[in-house]
Specification:
It contains two helices and 20 strands. It has 326 residues and is mainly beta. The protein has a domain of 101 residues: Leucine-rich repeat, LRR (right-handed beta-alpha superhelix). It starts with a helix and ends in an 8-residue tail after the last strand. The structure holds 2-acetamido-2-deoxy-beta-D-glucopyranose (NAG) (7 copies). It is found in: Cell envelope. This is Leucine-rich repeat-containing N-terminal plant-type domain-containing protein.
Length: 326
């Protein structure tokens, strides 16, 4: 009598425990592959085959209804090697965040394009190399894309302007070359645009006249020509950083958006003078130093609240906070 009863209990327990695990077996298999590909790093110690990835594992989270892995996020440096292609086999992933991994190298794998539910992709402060991939434009639900502080090279793929939901695009602090794509003046939803600290050259595309960026940072590149298309009295732009480029245009003719709170133009070849309309702006930051500006700094608004270093090293700019005009 005892043996069949015991085996019944055993069988029920087995059945119950198999059903009580929330983790999807396909996701578990893929995550264990990812762990092996990263050479079993310390940060993934909790990923054990006999435990529940939705309950017991750190670094990942499961969707509460589907119990599928929806987030993978490693933010302390201990991953090494390349991002494994297996990452593309987590079809319910919405957040992929691998940052501050100095030993994470190699290219961004094409398998990432399979992650159609991805809304948040942050791979910043790593040592990734190769291009900014064109295939990222297939991730139509992306709202946030940050590849900054890496070793990415080549030109910016024009197709990124096809991402319809982007709030922010960070490609700053890489080794990107070539021009800013003309298509970046055609975003349907205009993201914050961060392209600073690269080796971008050529002019700002004329199509930027149609783009109302909330934030645009093009600083520390080798961009040239007329940057006045960035501005416009009908825009709602708040932060503009064009510093340390080769821009050359007449500042007197620029119509600034009323919304502008921060303007950095230092180290360019900008001529003309500071238009009196700038006294109407509610600026919290201004730096027009190291340009070719001339004439009197208009008196009023916030313009005298900045110190002389906001204005120094120009051709013949004068008046408070610089020495008075002769
Ligand atoms: C990166 O790799 C180097 C050389 O293998 C090692 O000394 C260092 O500790 C690693 N850094 C991290 C954050 O894992
Ligand atoms: C990239 O690797 C180099 C050494 O190869 C290291 O000095 C640097 O800190 C790493 N970069 C980042 C952003 O971690
Ligand atoms: C993309 O987002 C929309 C709106 O949030 C949603 O309806 C759609 O299912 C998402 N697509 C994928 C592939 O997850
Ligand atoms: C950056 O990439 C270049 C090749 O494109 C390579 O020579 C260099 O070592 C890389 N730097 C780092 C810090 O990984
Ligand atoms: C601003 O006005 C110009 C023409 O006056 C127009 O071409 C441009 O599309 C407008 N920009 C925005 C953001 O409305
Ligand atoms: C800049 O434009 C103003 C107003 O049109 C004009 O008076 C001035 O001569 C121009 N300055 C330069 C350097 O072109
Ligand atoms: C303006 O920029 C110049 C050049 O980088 C710098 O020396 C100066 O301190 C800056 N001033 C302010 C107020 O940001």
């Amino acid at each position: 009598m005892a043996t069949p009863l015991l085996s019944l209990i055993f069988f029920t327990t087995l059945l119950f425990s198999a059903h009580s695990e929330l983790c999807n077996p396909k996701d578990k298999k893929v995550l264990l592959e990812i762990k092996a590909a990263f050479n079993n790093p310390y940060v993934l110690t909790s990923w054990k085959p006999d435990t529940d990835c939705c309950v017991d594992w750190y670094i990942v989270t499961c969707d509460p209804t589907s119990n599928r892995i929806n987030s993978l996020s490693v933010v302390t440096g201990s991953l090494s090697g390349q991002i494994p292609a297996a990452v593309g086999d987590l079809p319910f992933l919405e957040t992929l965040d691998l940052r501050k991994q100095p030993n994470l190298t190699g290219p961004i794998p094409p398998a990432i394009a399979k992650l159609q539910r991805l809304t948040f992709l942050r791979l910043n402060w790593n040592n990734l190399s190769g291009p900014v991939p064109d295939f990222l434009s297939k991730l139509k639900n992306l709202t946030f894309l940050d590849l900054s502080f890496n070793n990415l090279s080549g030109s910016i793929p024009p197709s990124l302007s096809l991402l319809p939901n982007l709030d922010a695009l960070h490609l700053d602090r890489n080794k990107l070359t070539g021009r800013i794509p003309y298509s970046f003046g055609t975003f349907s939803k205009v993201p914050g645009l961060y392209l600073s600290h690269n080796k971008l050259s050529g002019p700002i595309p004329a199509s930027f006249a149609n783009m109302d960026f909330n934030v645009i940072d093009l600083s520390r590149n080798m961009l040239e020509g007329d940057a006045s298309v960035v501005f416009g009295s009908n825009k709602t732009t708040q932060i503009v950083d064009l510093s340390r480029n080769l821009f050359k245009f007449n500042l007197s003719k620029v119509e600034f958006p009323k919304s502008l709170t921060s303007l950095d133009l230092n180290h360019n070849m900008i001529n003309g003078g500071i238009p009196v309309e700038m006294t109407a702006l509610n600026l919290q930051f201004l730096n027009v130093s190291y340009n070719r500006l001339c004439g009197q700094i208009p008196v009023g608004g916030k313009l005298q609240s900045f110190d002389y270093s906001s204005y120094f090293h120009n051709r013949c700019l004068c008046g408070s906070p610089l020495p008075s005009c002769k």
